[in-house]
């Protein structure tokens, strides 16, 4: 139906719905011939079923509402409403019918459709249309490497998948874990300063893995770690090494991938060999290790008058990747990130910096620039493969300083 005629009705007596229907059909019959007869119109589907609601009033009268659906055009519907108003009797009682309004059902449907469209659009915008800022955050999150975690009672630096992955990669320090995380390798854990004994956490973790890989630096420090691991009986299946003279923390993504693709199986036959032979087998291209000539003599270290507070400082520095620069009286001159240490030392002009303590590896590059700048002492987490020079600084590790 297109339209809905709504009208009020009053009857001066008690009647029922059938009386009203009969009055409407009877009193409008023949007004405009058979083509506009209500029964004919209903039969043809031009008007719908007439609905009437009546209620008695206190003075024995009836009041109510009637509704007539219409499929006629606008003019015919208006005329139909006017024709219904001509009914003035229901049974023996006077009656009055007054049209209140004609509702355009198509317009009502359109209004409902518009409101529903608004609701759908709001829901769609809230749930389906992404916020550009959220998209940018997701892109940044995808580019950002996973965060390092602390694993086990020893709080060892590790990747987030160290427990769930069936492969475990053991590296030397926190910086190695961070570098591997940068290239999407999340199943690593660091020995972190272990000098003579493998942490219990790593021992237990290695026993639960199908594959355990030891990934070491390509220097003397890596050889010492390998020797310790071989003596410990840790169930390591494969050995990976950084290129000669390089450390895992400095490798590029391509170098990491290459090192992990060239694994040396640590079979019982290999494990029975001395560590030096295992190292040579793992990296046949390795250059002979330069033998270090001892320069740190006890009396030299003693003359430096190293304060006991510096030992505590090394404990605080562990894991921070920071460097502290001191003058001859052990007054702190500057703090810098380890990655900036070389450039900082290289740029020193007539500086009073004499001692450097940093959470990193003492490399040949750091040693050379320290020698050039007159540094007396370098204290690092580890000492790399150093070819020492006359007049160079004394070299100590955190472990040696605290022992």
Number of strands: 19
Residue share in helix: 25-40%
> Which descriptor suits the 3D outline?
rod-shaped
| Residue-averaged pLDDT | 84
CATH fold-level label of the largest domain = Dna Topoisomerase Vi A Subunit, Chain: A, domain 2
Number of helices: 16
The helix/strand class is alpha/beta
Strand content: 15-25%
Strand order of the largest sheet: 2-3-1-5-4
The value of Rg in angstroms is 46 Å
- Low-pLDDT stretches: 282-299
Largest sheet: 5 strands, antiparallel
Span between N and C termini? 98 Å
CATH class of the largest domain: Alpha Beta
The figure for the number of domains is 3
Key terms for this structure?
403 residues, alpha/beta, Alpha-Beta Plaits, Dna Topoisomerase Vi A Subunit, Chain: A, domain 2, Cytidine Deaminase, domain 2, five-stranded antiparallel sheet, five-stranded mixed sheet, 16 helices, 19 strands, 23% strand
